[in-house]
Amino acid sequence: MRDVTGTTAAARITIGSDGVLQVPDVPIIPYVEGDGTGVDIWPAARAVLDAAAARFGRRVEWLEVLAGEKAFNETGEWLPTETIDAFRDHLIGIKGPLTTPVGGGFRSLNVAIRQLLDLYVCLRPVRWFRGVPSPVRNPEAVNMVIFRENTEDIYAGIEAEAGSPEADRIREMVREVFGRELRADSGIGIKPVSRTGSQRLQRAALNYAVARKRSRVTFVHKGNIMKFTEGAFRNWGYELVREEFADVAVGWDDCGGDAGGRILVSDTIADIALQQVLTRPAEFDVIATMNLNGDYLSDALAAQVGGIGIAPGGNINYVTGHGVFEATHGTAPKYAGQDKVNPSSVLLSGVMMFEHLGWDAAADAITSAMEETIAAGIVTYDFARLMEGATEVRCSEFAQAIIDRL
Ligand code: NAP
């Protein structure tokens, strides 16, 4: 819709009754700049996102919202209600890294945002960009997308401190119900894993594999040891494939490994998976896993393709349509304001966001331009120190080099 001046008016993203996002020509997208190096990486990333959108006749109306130190300094709150409301109302948002407040009433602001919006998928694509220094011999074989469950598992935060009345009561209950004695000085954590939580994550991974024409989905779990949590996750996954995806996907046991053109769904024990993603990366495509396994796996995989400065992430609820895309590294305070660090993590999170909105052409243009820039040896300090003959540039210069190649 055009306003009186002839420019297209910005509007909110909505979700249709069919669960599909309705993205207006000029969507309003809330962003949190982020603490520490957020002041460097966010403006750099935003410039690239804006330039790529403009190339394809698109525009984003950015809406700044506050969280972290900047919010605390300006409002006295670490995570103002208005920020959560803005993410809730506009469905999709993006954020830089945030300082974890010490004694601020939050375990982590990032976790709080995920919980408040029930963002049950942590989506971490892991792929290699030509020229990026890597500790492995064939980084080009790494092209995986990790769906990490974001709300359950031992991360649910139900813990009792050793010696506390809560721990004593749980020990009593364990004695009574299981006939087992726990040491009196045990801290205790509870690991809830539900069919609902597991299957909504697995459904998202399978839908993604179908939509993006991926060929394999692997459930990673430790079900050989934890049968009723991790083992159940595996079993519920195969059940879901049979009940909801039989026309497009098939479990390994139901086809003996011959999927006949459908998506092949298999499972791997977490410890073996951590070896095989290194030794046989080409066999992994989409991975669906639980919270703790997913945490280890996504960082281990990110290290194979260039590490912390480049790994993007998104936290998504595919049912409500909410999604917050984010840099996966921290605030790196020692570099704050120096225009030095690598903006790729937040920039590629923006690329994921564009893909999620259906702006694939703009997303692909950024990915190609970034690949060309790195292949030309134009990189920030973190890559320059690992590459021979590289030209080290500032954060903003790296962004400009990408814009020049769009
Ligand atoms: P960090 O900020 O991730 O920094 C650790 C190291 O990673 C840096 O010293 C730097 O390595 C490298 N690094 C980080 N960002 C980079 C970038 N953009 N480009 C290139 N290299 C980068 O971790 P931290 O120092 O442990 O944590 C600092 C604060 O961030 C804490 O308050 C923590 O709670 C918070 N945090 C927030 C998030 C989030 O918001 N998602 C995540 C993790 C931590 P070199 O020293 O080798 O150059």
Overall helicity? 40-55%
The general outline is globular
The helix/strand class is alpha/beta
How far apart are the first and last residues' alpha carbons, in Å? 28 Å
Low-confidence stretches: none
Biggest sheet character: 11 strands, mixed
Care to describe what's here?
The protein has helices spanning 38-55, 69-75, 81-90, 109-116, 165-178, 195-211, 227-244, 252-255, 270-279, 291-304, 344-357, 360-375, 381-384, 395-404, and strands at 14-15, 21-22, 28-32, 61-64, 92-95, 121-127, 143-149, 159-160, 188-189, 216-221, 249-251, 263-269, 286-289, 312-316, 323-327, 378-379, 391-392. The longest helix has 18 residues, at 38-55. With 406 residues, the protein is an alpha/beta fold. The mean pLDDT is 93. The chain has an 11-stranded mixed β-sheet with strand order 4-3-5-15-14-6-7-13-10-12-11, sandwiched between helices. A two-stranded antiparallel sheet has the order 1-2. The structure holds NADP nicotinamide-adenine-dinucleotide phosphate (NAP). NADP nicotinamide-adenine-dinucleotide phosphate is lined by residues 37, 41, 97-100, 110, 308-309, 326, 329-333, 341-342, 345, 382.
